[in-house]
Design brief:
Blueprint (H helix, E strand, L loop, with lengths): L1 H29 L1 H4 L7 H8 L9 E5 L5 H9 L5 E6 L2 H10 L5 E5 L5 H7 L5 E6 L8 H14 E11 L5 H7 L2 E7 L6 E7 L1
Parallel strand pairs: 1-2, 1-4, 2-3, 4-5
Antiparallel strand pairs: 5-7, 6-7
């Protein structure tokens, strides 16, 4: 009986992962410039990025472009019971998928652009964000949109917080240096594609 229950659990998990992959791949083919990669981020990349979060003290977290929730689920697993996670996603398919698969009262899924993060936080009375986590491909966005996202992000990061960003191209670095007082760089090869990681803070 135990084996049967475990087998059913493994089967459901496998189906869920397959659904995530096909949804992600389908949307990559429809919007390649908005996703940057045909498959979600690797567990290694997720762990490396999220190791920079002070989970004990973080109460307001934001994620830009959660896609199928690869980072979202791990953030929810680690974050404080009293913390809030806002995810901003412009793709309606991903918004609907996350609403169906991530039923957590600490999570709010918002069909909105990262450009409007100041308004989103203000409307909810949340103040500044402790961490903003993102993998949206900034290098493919028009210059004014990219600069608007980075400027708005810098305005809402708490003094002790950080903007944690991964990119497949290093071309965003001059924009980060122009916007944030401190930018730390790292390279994460164990991902498809290998990723550049940036920790931006004041």
């Amino acid at each position: 009986m135990e084996y049967s229950k475990q087998g059913m659990k493994d089967s459901r998990q496998s189906m869920s992962q397959s659904k995530q992959f096909f949804l992600f791949a389908k949307n990559f083919l429809k919007h390649p410039k908005m996703l940057g990669s045909i498959i979600p981020s690797s567990p290694f990349l997720v762990r490396r990025m999220l190791s920079h979060v002070d989970w004990q003290n973080a109460r307001v977290l934001v994620e830009y472009g959660p896609g199928v929730g690869t980072f979202t689920r791990e953030i929810l697993r680690q974050m404080h019971p009293e913390a809030t996670l806002l995810v901003l996603e412009t793709n309606e398919d991903f918004v609907e998928f996350l609403r169906q698969t991530c039923p957590d009262p600490r999570l709010e899924i918002i069909h909105e652009s990262a450009e409007n993060i100041e308004q989103v936080l203000a409307e909810r009375g949340l103040g500044l964000a402790d961490y903003i986590i993102a993998g949206i491909p900034l290098s493919t966005l028009p210059g004014p949109v990219k600069d608007s996202i980075l400027s708005s992000t810098q305005q809402v990061i708490a003094p002790s917080g950080a903007f944690l960003l991964y990119q497949f191209s290093p071309s965003v670095l001059p924009h980060l240096n122009k916007t944030f007082p401190k930018v730390q760089r790292d390279f994460i090869p164990l991902n498809f594609l290998p990723a550049h990681f940036y920790r931006c803070s004041s």
